[in-house]
């Protein structure tokens, strides 16, 4: 797929031929057809892009006079303006990245925004009312900062970043290109580090920073703590859901998926393509290998050195977990059988007493 990496959100409108070229698709429409946005098949309009994976989706797209439909060769019909691709949903997701989020596209700096000394920026930026930006901050091209965002001193943000309302970026944070952070997330808050003595707890200084690499997405109300020293790192392409807690000095590898209500203890290191399902818990100082999936509500209390699926408390290989779960079900069945046998024995004993 030929995807622009340095200028993804600079255009509001594309020709159908341009979109087809970006995804190596086969165009079955007027090459000059202009498309200015995207929507699902049920709400798409005449100038917008959508996708269809079934006859039902295709019927909805046609009913709404979709401007352009991404379809497989099997679903394509002659009367539909379309791009034929192998995976319409994937093609839609990737083309959607080419369009800016117009809700926050308002070039310039709002009068009520507060901008610190030494501020530098690239071109075509949007800073909305009530945003506060500290001293010595740099933001790149096409960055959109929504209302109420706070960016602390000495932060650096790359190109094509979208910060939703109320995001807090604390001092010294570094953020790469094409990063999106949802409302209320806090990046760079102090890590939870204390030394205890005689029943009292003394805060350890949290002097490090957070590094968010390119193409990361962070959900609403997620918190990523700064390192005690050095860096907390979120690797390129990682996608983080809402309400996730990531402790200080965590290093998440490339293309991780971290689902809602997961908690990751400090100084844990995740490999590449790790998936942590909802409410997974990872203790501190854990090492997890590449291509590991931790299922929902599992607790990882020791290193995982091999790829695969892990479940349960404590987390172990999924097959082992299933065997144990099946064993527990068998035990419950055996308990009932034993109870039934005990009842029968009591009846026999009572009968024998009566015979005596």
TrEMBL record:
**Span of domain UDP-3-O-[3-hydroxymyristoyl] glucosamine N-acyltransferase non-repeat region:** 33-97
Q: What is its EC number?
A: 2.3.1.191
Q: Which residues form the active site?
A: 248 (proton acceptor)
Q: Does the keyword Repeat apply?
A: yes
Pfam family for this entry, one: LpxD
What is catalyzed by this enzyme? Answer: a UDP-3-O-[(3R)-3-hydroxyacyl]-alpha-D-glucosamine + a (3R)-hydroxyacyl-[ACP] = a UDP-2-N,3-O-bis[(3R)-3-hydroxyacyl]-alpha-D-glucosamine + holo-[ACP] + H(+)
One GO cellular-component annotation of the UniProt record comes to: membrane
Which Gene Ontology MF annotations are present?
N-acyltransferase activity; UDP-3-O-[(3R)-3-hydroxyacyl]-glucosamine N-acyltransferase activity
Q: Which InterPro entries match?
A: Hexapep, LpxD, Trimer_LpxA-like_sf, UDP_GlcNAc_AcTrfase_non-rep
Tell me if Plastid is a UniProt keyword of this record: no
CDD domains to which the protein is assigned, alphabetical = LbH_LpxD
What are the protein's UniProt keywords? Acyltransferase, Lipid A biosynthesis, Lipid biosynthesis, Lipid metabolism, Repeat, Transferase
Q: Which GO terms describe its biological process?
A: lipid A biosynthetic process
Assembly, in brief, is: Homotrimer.
Q: Which family does the similarity line name? A: Belongs to the transferase hexapeptide repeat family. LpxD subfamily.
Report the function annotation for this chain: Catalyzes the N-acylation of UDP-3-O-acylglucosamine using 3-hydroxyacyl-ACP as the acyl donor. Is involved in the biosynthesis of lipid A, a phosphorylated glycolipid that anchors the lipopolysaccharide to the outer membrane of the cell.
The molecule here is called: UDP-3-O-acylglucosamine N-acyltransferase
What organism, scientifically named, is this protein from?
Halonatronomonas betaini
Gene name in the database record: lpxD
